[in-house]
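User: Modeling request: complex.
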Amino acid sequence: MKEDVTIGVLALQGAVEPHRAHVEACGARFAAVKTPEAFAQVDGFILPGGESTTMLKLIENFDLWDVLAEQFRAKPVWGICAGSILMARTVLNPAQKSFDLLPITIQRNGYGRQLDSHYDLVDGYKVSFIRAPVITEAGPDVEVLARQDDVPVWVQKGHYMASAFHPELTQDYPSPMHRRFVDLVRKSA
Amino acid sequence: MSDNSSQNVINIKTGLAEMLKGGVIMDVVTADQAKVAEDAGAVAVMALERVPSDIRAAGGVARMSPPELVQQIMDSVSIPVMAKCRIGHFAEAQVLEAIGVDYIDESEVLTPADEDYHINKHDFKVPFVCGAKNLGEALRRIGEGAALMRTKGEPGTGNIVEAVRHLRQINQDIRRITLLDDAELMTEAKNLGAPFELVKLVKKDGRLPVPNFAAGGVATPADAALCMQLGAETVFVGSGIFKSEDPAKFAKAIVKATAHYNDPRAVLEASKGLGEAMRGVAIETIEEGMRMANRGW
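Assistant: Request completed. Predicted assembly structure:
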């Protein structure tokens, strides 16, 4: 248990800055990280929302795959929307490479395009689904923390957590998801 | 939908713009170009019939792209697809919404359909991006419902000077407002020609109420890094990629320079071995009436 933790948001692309106020409201330090030196300094990672295809290309084009895989083995990771796609074991529509941190199958843009983006309540907290993926299968050892219409939208296994939705765009700090993740990082650090 | 919650959430339309931050949005005219853009790490593509430099060369009336073309591009990539409609042409926007594009650009690159009125973007579920030269223009578009702003720059020129002018102007306008007394805000709103409520919001937050991206004249990795350091949150590249000598290389290089905009060594690496950039145009050689940035108000 370590109280004073730094949460690193992978900052190659996407919704990075909106996490700052949530992380700080949990009493943790926020860092936007994009280099191996910066990755080594953090206690847990948020893989933010953005475009998963783009993040994947950037991780590969910038030669960051191996160093991130190594970091993720030892530290808690929370993937949001695009980030959850990077964590899945299997990705559909189209199939793409992933870090395989969680035994889940995820369908990209499973709810449709931007016109199908919407708000919903998860754990009493208003969240946004934006061109969101759908978790179509979760392994038996995956804990489902929330479902919408019978579909898992927030899951966890060990120190890996994923959400199909965005709590970070809600300006009521911190979100219950950030609180849970920062606790997880504190317990693991 | 659970809109009964009192929690204040970033608008779902602006939410998508948040997801595009720190990236590069590329103009493409074919499905093959869209694939090149996606492979290079573009966060989105703009589906067009012609890139701005060709629109400039062709003259005549530039309209919305044919629906088949937009659809082919949507079918070929998994990143978001944007498309342009003419300023004020809400029927073109309705068609683009019916196709299901992810973002509509009400753009001065096309020939305006209405010289007095822009589209009432609140009427649409699909989000809009609009161009601006200064804060007043940006807040008028946001007042009409735009969820994302970009500089106008001078499209199709490969000349960054106008985009820089517009970024600096918007930054200066915002800084000035943050220093004003509350009593001075209404006069400022009047002078800017901007909605009062939005002027108050800018004073409170010290920034635009929606993300601000750079567009219009970006041609090299260093151009992209310049815009990002001047406060742009993402970069649109129009003619700069597919009018260069090696589009796939240029696309990757501009993406890298945008992601690492504040690391000169990374921008240096990105700038090496690229071949010829697009040929540029000096702004003063373009007749006043041919300048796209002057379209809209």
